[in-house]
Structure formats: structure tokens, C-alpha cells
Amino acid sequence: MAHELRQPTPEARPLLERRRELRALDSALTSLRDTVDGVPQAPRGGLLAFTGPGGMGKTALLSEARARARAQGFTVLSGRGGEKEQELAFHVVRQVVQPALASMDEKELRTFLGGWYDIVAAALGLVATPSGHVPDPTGVRDGLDWVMTRLAVMKAPVVLLLDDLHWADVESLSWLASFAPRAVDLSLLIAVAFRPDELPLEAAAFSAPAAGLGTRPFALAPLSATAVARIVRDEVGEEAEDEFCEECWEVTGGSPFEAVELSIRLGERNLRGTSEDLPAMRDLAAAVKGPGLIERLQGFGTTTVRFAYAAAVLGQAISPELAARIAALGSTAAAEATEKLRAARILADGEGTGESLEFVHPLIATTIYRSIGPSLREGMHNSAAEAVRAAGLGHAAAARHLLEVPCEGSTEAVACLREAAREALHSGAPEAARRLLNRALQEPPLPEDRAALLHELACATFLMKPTATVAHLREALAEPGTDPELRASMVYRLTQALAHTDRMAEAATVAADEAQRAAAHPRIRLRMQADHFVWSAFRTDEADSSGRSRALARLADRLPGRGLEERYILGLRAWDAMMCGEPRQKALGYAEEALRGGLSWTHENRGFEVPVSVALVFMYCDQPRRAEELFAKGMAECASKGWHGSHLALGQTLSGYIRYRRGCLAEAENLVREGLRIADRVEGAVPAQWFAVGILIQTLLARGRVVAARRLADRYQYGDVIPNAVIYPDPRTVHAELLLAEGRSDDAAALLSGVGEWLEGRDWRNPAWCPWQLGLASALSRRAPDRAVRHAQDAVKRARDFGAASAIGQALHTQAEVTGGEAGLDLHAQAVDHLQRSPAAYELARALVGHGAALARAGRLHDAADRLYQGLEGAVHCGAEGLAARARRELSAAGLRPLPLRYAQTDTLTAQERKAAEGTVRGRAAAVVAKELNLTEQGVRQLLSSVYRKLGTDASGLAEALETFPRPRPDS
Question: What pLDDT, in 10s, does the model give residues 245-302?
């Protein structure tokens, strides 16, 4: 049986001259079935679009689609845009989805929607008063994708009918356009109808569907004279004269709507279709729309005219009671007016089960609405806003009428608009909220409410127009007597907006000034100091980085407590210690202190820059597994709040960076590509793009895909523009790495020399964060070998000062490469030794291959073979095709054949690896562990090296990692 979720309009007429469209409809419906004539087939959805001016019969085609779908037992969902409802965010989406969920109570809805409930409930109109975190628009769209996909699967096959799409609200249009391509993979047919000349840009996908989604839209042509004659004769009789029918076609222009309406009126007047009836016919045709319609309406009397005006102001789904109240009519007068308008085919009973009315055709509604005088129309909208509020239909429904009313300084109007804007924000519709708050600001609000209103407006515009956000917040901060907590929130949002527009210096200055201003409020002052340190640390042109580092260190060491503000300061101190190359144990100590009590990624008045930085401290300090755990927790927190935009893009990207640093290159590439995909589709996610492109270039280079890395760099003009914000990995260093891979050593050297000058000026000396000296040493190795060695030696010293084995090993590897000879062989061995004590699998593989190649050049083929085989295995397991190819070439050049891989890559510890790790954690010497396992000490070191790579930590984090890592099976 059919699942009819909206009732059809009860009037069916033959569809003339629409054979092509009906054939396409039948074909699309057949494709939805899993069997045809008993033969199984894979159901396939798609898009079917009907276009044309008003009155061309688009709605009639959708009604026929409804009837044919119901006849085949399909589920039908439908929605319709409204000329007066375009300001209501997700209005069409709610029409589509709400009937399918109408039978569920809140508990059932929460079960059905699962984790998406808090994200999409407001957008779907399932909660009267939204609360909690504001989801970002991307998260809401993702949630709607999930809801619609689940409905399509549960109720398959499904036909989704969308009428008057050109009048749909922009939020519904944007989502529908992005979701439509999924129909192909579902048993879902989306049939839409719209006027092409009025279709907004957000719905462009429907006028030019992607290949495979459906045919191009069917442009409906006017009916021929023959078809109009058929319509006329069906009403007045077959004896209607040809000349009369021809004239009917002329006056209607072949419009199906006008032809049908005219023929009905001809029948009502008992005209026979003779030449004598032509004058009367022309009068009737003129009354179908335009001035003739208004003249006919006025003939019904003032009461009926006012009721029709009120109905036009209300738009769709007209409540007779509300219309009566707006028209200032009693129930009896309203009922009489309704009957007259029904009889005149101006109004009809509405769709659904309620006692609502609707206009017979949108052309009629538009004509009547535009005939209302400006003053009367504004007064009726004002009455409508009051009536809607009194009826409890919600602030959004009332606010859309207030948008049509002159500003009068009404506190009630301001309150309604602000509440409607809050609902829009919780629905993931910031643009709708912006329009409402702009209007509330114009009302205007009371002086004491102005600052708060400007703050709300700034929050609504942040994702779309951060420059406007800055202007609104500066104006708000100029208002006197603002509550200190509200003012702090304003300053935080202002610094975010300035940073978002690449004005890092201004952001830092604003926070510093506010910290001085807030001397009477210690916690606010500390919070502003933290914000000042954040934006100072992440601006590329900071004048006194060393002074800021010293001030931050002094403040962190004398903090009186461990509240949220203090923990942010400690987190910043951990990051700064790492950047400056202070001993890693110090940086880790501050990071652990910052995490005691938690650092939320979604705090309403805190950015996630500090929590992310704290997590990355662990990565740079050779504990990437801990960083991954923090990222997984933070991203889950973002997802639960519906933050699927730039937060998720950056989270995915930096998760990929951690995998890159661990040497899991294929996983890293997938994660970063997903982060870049999200960033590309999210408005204002440019910083996330910078991170993603740089990390992806590095990953591609590690995999040996230089051409792909160059294409990516060119596509995003990477290296051509340097942002004012600190990005990691450093864009110029990554660009230089690409130049080196392309053999452009001189260009790379010039670029890296500039990077070095910049970092030296800031006292950022940690090669684990930016290995510019290593790249510069490689670039100079041929034309200035002495300088190359000096840079490499200095990088090794700095890495030893920091203390991370991966950084030391990587620096030693470069020093070995530029030194050469017997001394180089010793340095190669040291590099391998250090990297075996780190979780950096790719860097270890590089060092092994480099050491093996050097040994082969020195004629030590036996030792070379062992290193090259190990390096080849490591490269293959990392997904470093280029490095694996080099290892094979080195083996071949040494007269050796590559052997099959000796072990399969797995993240699970073997029993021996576990025992070696546990013995090390208990403080046993390598010789003791070796004796217990019947291995050599070298064998134990190789076991532990594997443990560090699998667990994602060095020895200092081994005990904690083992506690949460699964134990091996007995047969391992």
C-alpha cells in the first residue's frame, strides 16, 4: 500500500501534450523498483525537473507523479516553496520530513535520529525552544543528509516532490542541491518544478544536473490551439466553434492554467462557444489574472476583499481564523467571504488534514498581494505578526511578517526578532539570523540592549562575513555600561574575526588592550592575557617573540590555581616551550598540567587553538599516540555539537599529520584529503585549506609522488602567497621541500634562508617543528658543502637540546648525507639508532635506506644488504613507493636482489614485543630482557623499535601506552 504523507489536491484533468514528460516519469518510476516483470534489477534513483513560467502545468505534472507513485505503492514525500515563506529557514525541508516523523514522540524521535537529534532537531522544527550549542551549517546539512538517506532506505521506494522550488527558502535549497546527487544511489526519485527565470543560484544544480543524475529539465511549452480547444469543448460541449476555440487559445497564450480556468467559467456561464459569446469570453479571460482578477474580486464587496488580502498576507496553509483576525472580521463574515472566494475559484481547501485554505494558483495569490496598497499591506503584516504570536505559532512565523513592517521602536518586535534569530542559529541558518537581527537593530532596541544585540548579530555573521563581524563588535564595545562577562565574550569574538581575516596583529593588540582594561576583574584579565598570547604566537610578524615567551613563562610559573584560564596559559606555555626547543620533558610537563581538568574543543567563548596545540605537543615530543587520543576525543566533541565545518576540516587534517609523522602515509593521505574536501566546501575555511595543502604536499612527496604534489601546489597557488598566520608545517619550508624534489636546489636554498632568518628572530629553534636547516643543508650540499655541514651540525645540536629521538635521528641522517665518507657512516648509524627509539617509521626507513646506500658505496655489501632490506620493508609498510623504489635500485646497483617481505605489517604487538616492552617499563636492562627472551641485545632493540612504532610513543610514554593497548592473543 502507498505511504501517503501529504494529500494530493483533489482535482484531476487529462494532461494534454505532455506525453514526453509522462514517459520520462514512468521510466523514472520503473527504475525505482527492484523487480520489473518479475526480473530483478538494481533500483536506481534520479532527478526529474519540469520548468516553465507560471501557469504552464508544472504542479499538474507533479500531481500526476504523486498519483502514479501512490498507485505503485511508493512512499511519497513532498514540499512546496512559497513566495511569502522564503524568509523561513528550512521551511521546505520541514514540509518534507515532518509528516514522516509525525507519529513519533520525543523518545522515539531521539531513538530514530540518534546522535543527530541535537544537531538537526531545530532545523526540522521538532523542538519549540532550541537550546545548547549552536551547530554549524555544515553539520546540519550532514545531519539532514543522514535523515533523508535513512528515510529513503526505510520507506523505499520513495518519490520526493518539490513544487515551486524557485520560492524555496535558501537553507532548504542549499541542502537539497547538495543532497540531490545521492538520489542515484538510493531508491529515491526527486521530482522538482520551478520557474527557470526565478531560480536562485543556490539551486543551479537543478537546472543543470550532474551527469548520471537525470536528464536536463523538461521545459514545458504552451499548449497548442488544438489542446486548448479540447479543454474548452470538455466544458461547453463539442459544438463549440473553431473560431471561438482559436480565440480562447489566443487570449490564454496556451497557458494550461488560464485555459482551464477560462473553460470552467465558460461552463458556469452556460456559454456555447459561438461567435456571439466572444465578448463575454474575453471578459472572463481578463478576470482570470491581473487587473481583471482584482476587478472581479472587488465585485464581491469590501468584506470579501479584506479576507482575500489577509489570506494573501499569510501565504501558504492559510488559517481561516487568523485571516479573519487580520481582516478584523467576525466568524460569520469570514465564513461568507470564504464561500464566495471558493465559488470564484480564488481559494480552495488546503492540503493535509487541517482546516486550512490555499489559493487555487500562486499566480492568483501574487496578483492579489501586489494589489494591496503599501500602507494597508504593512498594517496587515503587523496584525499578522501579533495574531501569529497570540496563536502560539512561534517567533519565526511572526518575525517574517515583522520584516515587512516599518520600524517603530517596538520592544516586543525586537524581542520577537531576536528570539527568531536565536532559533535560526540553532537551526544552522546564520544568514536567516543575520537578516532578523539586522532588522531588530533598525527597530531600534533600547539603549541598554544595543550592545548585546550587536554581539548576537556579530555571532550570526561570523562564518559568512567576518569583516562585518569586526564592525559590529567594535560598535558594540563602544557602548557604555556593558556587563564585563559580555564584554569579554565580545572581545574574544572580535579577536577570532580579526584572525579569521588574517589580521593577527590586530587580534593580539585587542586582547592586550582588554587585559589592561580588565584589571579589576582578575579572571577576565587572565583570559585576555591568554588570548593575547595565542594571537601573538600565531602571527608571523610578531616584533618581540622572545619577550612574549619570557612573559608567558613568568606568568605560567606563578599561576595561583588551575582553573580554566590557568590551564589555557599552561597549554600555551607547553606549546611555546616546544617551539623554542626547550627540553621536551618540560613541554610535556606543562601539557599534562594543562590537561588536568580538561580542555574543551567546543567551549562557547574559547577557541580550540590551545587544545589543538597541546595535543600536538605530544606529537612533536614523540608521543603521537597520545596526540591521536586527544584528537579523537576533541573531534568527537565537535561532531556531537554539530561542528562539521572548519573545526572538522582542521581536525581531519591534523589527524592526518600525526599519521604522517608516524609513517602511516596512506592513512595520512586519506585523512588529509578528507580534511581538504571539507575545507573546500565550507565558507571561510581558508586557514584549514593552508594546513591541509601543506601536509598533503609533504605526504605526497614522502610517497614519491612529486608530480602530484606540484599539481596540488599549483591548484591552490601554494607558495605564491604567505599568510599572516603561523601555519604548520611552515608553508615556505614545504614549498622548498617540493623545489628540492624537483631538483631546484638554488630556489629552495633562497627560500629556506628566509625561513631561517624569520625563525631565528623569534627564537623558534626546534627542528622537530620546522626542519629548515635540514632542507637548507641538502640544498647547499653540492655548491657549499661546508655551509651545509654547519647547518646540519647546528640542527643536530638543537635536536639534542630538545631531546626527541625522532628529531635527533632525522637531523643526524641529514648530517650524514652532507658529510659523507667514514664519518658519514658513523653518523648514519647514529641516526638509525635514534630513530629506532622513536615512533617515526618513515624517517627510520629513510635512514635505513640512506645508511645502506652509504655502506654499499663503501664496499660493505653484507652490512648494506641488511640495512637496505630493512629499509625496503619499512618503506613498503609506510606506503612510501618512491623510497621503496630507491631501496630496490640501491640493492640492484650493489648486485643484490630484493627479497620478499619478511613479515606482514600489523599494529598488534607480538608476545615477544609485549614482554620486551613490559621488561623495559619495569626498568630492566636490555641484557636482562635479552636473556629472558633468548635474544641478543640487538634483537631486543629491534623488538622495542617495532613496539615504539606500533604504539606510537617513545620509551617515556611506553608505560601509559601499554596500559591501553590490547594484549596479544595466546597464539601470537
Answer: 999 999 999 999 999 999 999 999 999 999 999 999 999 999 988 899 999 999 999 9
| Amino acid (one-letter) located at 699 | T
The DSSP call for residue 726 is: -
Q: What grid cell was written down for 220?
A: 514545458
Calculate the CA 321 to chain-centre distance.
Answer: 42
Amino acid at 955: A
Enter the C-alpha cell of residue 706. 612529486
200-214, 597-611, 912-926: least confident range: 200-214
pLDDT, tens digit, 9 for 90 and up, residues 555-584? 999 987 788 889 999 999 999 999 999 999
**How far apart (Å, rounded) are the C-alpha atoms in residues 658 and 631?**
10
Strands 39-40 and 35-36: antiparallel
Contacts of 57 (CB under 8 A, 6+ apart): 15, 18, 220, 256, 257
Q: 496 near 461, Cβ under 8 Å?
A: no
pTM for the whole thing?
0.84
Please state, in angstroms and rounded to a whole number, the distance separating the CA atoms of residues 355 and 361: 18
* Residue 499 CA from chain centroid, whole number: 20
CA distances 698 to 665, 729, 754, Å, are: 10, 9, 20
| Percent of the chain whose predicted confidence (pLDDT) is above 90 | 78
Question: What's the rounded Cα separation, in Å, for the pair 310 and 368?
Answer: 10
Nearest CA to 388 among 413, 355, 362? 413
Cα distance between residue 452 and residue 463, in whole Å: 19
Q: How many other CB atoms are found less than 10 A from the CB of residue 911?
A: 14
Through-space distance between the first and last CA atoms of the chain, rounded to whole angstroms: 56
Using the structure block, give the residue that is written with the C-alpha cell 652509504: 854
- pLDDT digit string, tens, across residues 705-758: 999 999 999 999 998 777 888 899 999 999 999 999 999 999 999 999 999 999
Diameter of the chain by CA atoms?
Answer: 118
Are 496 and 535 within 8 A, CB to CB?
no
Whether residue 655 contacts residue 628, with contact meaning beta carbons closer than 8 Å, is answered with yes
